[in-house]
Amino acid sequence: MPEIRKDPVTGRSVIIAAERAKRPQQDSASQESLCPFCPGNEQMTPPEVFAYRDSQSSPDAPGWTVRVVPNKYPALVKEGVWSTSRRGVYESMTGLGVHEVIIESPEHVVDVAALDEKQVTAVLRVYRGRMLDLREDNRWRSILVYKNQGAPAGATLEHVHSQVIALPEAPEQLRAEIDGARKYYKANGRCLFCEMIRQNTEGGERLVAEHERWAAICPYAARFPFEIWILPKRHAPYFELSPDQDLAELAHCLRDALARLNRVLDHPPFNYLIHSHPLDGAETRHYHWHIEILPKLVQVAGFEWGSGMFINPVAPEEAARLLRHVTL
Predict the structure, then answer these.
(1) For residue 32, what are the contacts with CB-CB under 8 A and spacing of at least 6?
(2) Average pLDDT estimate for 27-43
(3) Looking at the domain that runs over 3-167, which CATH code has it been given?
(4) Distance from first CA to last CA of the chain, Å, rounded?
(5) Exposure b/e, 18-51, CB count within 10 A at least 16 = b
């Protein structure tokens, strides 16, 4: 059983999940016949919890376009008895949660940017559907969708996939974003993220691309070279409440941003994640959901670990200029 431990000094939560060490590795497309995410290999995964599939096909069989399965090596588990423990200064709780894998295509594709807009739209709709389903369980306080593409970014299987995890508390980074946005709102009466969008679309120096409903920017204090944030222009705290029309254009915006990274950086490994407001019933006027795309170009080393500060060798203004003017 996984365990969530609290650091007694910082209050930071750490998931202790020894089963994760057993995850398989797959480094070459030549191993496609052994890929558990390819059609015909459905029995290599746990039984699916959702799938877009042909009406004539059966669960856990070929005929699907997007498939969702429980993570075989989960960081958190859904079933179990909720309990907390204190031993002196040490505090822990049962590692309850939900950890699922979203297989984004039946084709053995290794780069999500190679999927067409229709397929990416379907993936985004599955994200939304899984989040809406998971938020019905009042044990979970936050839901995180994330992708690891490429071994340096943490992917253990190359077939395009992403993951969703429901947590019993909001992650520290999300809480920090919400706290900062709340302070700005109290002081100024406006959403900080909406102001960021306005300033970047009007000034343009950190703008990567602008679409009818979306803006892609390199954030002012980017932690990593070529870091990109995609934000809805309309104030929206929850990704999972996005309408179909927004998701269709988001698929175009996301593919566009990834294509620009591929062209400038020659298909870098990356992570992306969706930060959506926690499920705590709190006021949401100050928070704005967004996607963060984090190319894996530099190593986080001693200074970063020791100080909590990041050293970014590429100014976000220069990164945005290169990405904005690249020929696609």
Answers:
(1) 38, 108
(2) 78
(3) 3.30.428.10
(4) 47
(5) eeeeeeeebeeeeeeeebbbbbeebeebbebebb
Is 50 exceeded by the pLDDT of residue 29? no
Query: What confidence tens digit (pLDDT) does each residue in 121-177 have?
Result: 999 999 999 999 999 999 999 999 999 999 999 999 999 999 999 999 999 999 999
The CB-side HSE value for 129 (13 A sphere, CA atoms) comes to: 15
Walk across the sheet containing 142-149 and list its strands: 50-53, 64-70, 98-103, 161-167, 142-149, 270-275, 290-295, 228-232, 214-217, 207-210
46: tokens are: 């746990």
Same fold, 3-167 and 172-325: yes
Give the pLDDT confidence score for residue 188 in this predicted structure: 97
**Strand, coil or helix: what is 19?**
helix
Task: List, in sequence order, the alpha helices (H) in the chain.
Answer: 117-134, 172-188, 192-203, 244-265, 302-307, 316-325
Q: Which of 99, 108, 159, 161 is catalytic?
A: 161
Candidates 57, 78, 77; CA nearest to 67 is 57
Q: Which amino acid is at 240?
A: E
Residue 27 has pLDDT above 70, yes or no: no
Instruction: Read off the tokens for 120.
Output: 């990416």
The domains of the chain are located at 3-167, 172-325
0.90 cut: is pTM over it? yes
Q: Is the pLDDT of residue 21 over 80?
A: no
Q: What are phi and psi of 226, to 5 degrees?
A: 65, 25
- Hey, what are 244's tokens? 């179909």
Q: In which band, very low, low, confident or very high, does the pLDDT at 25 lie, cut at 50, 70 and 90? A: low
Q: Could you confirm whether 267 is annotated as catalytic?
A: no
The topology (CATH level 3) of 172-325 is: HIT family, subunit A (3.30.428)
**Mean per-residue pLDDT of the chain:** 94
Q: Order of strands, edge to edge, in the sheet holding 84-87?
A: 13-16, 3-6, 90-94, 84-87
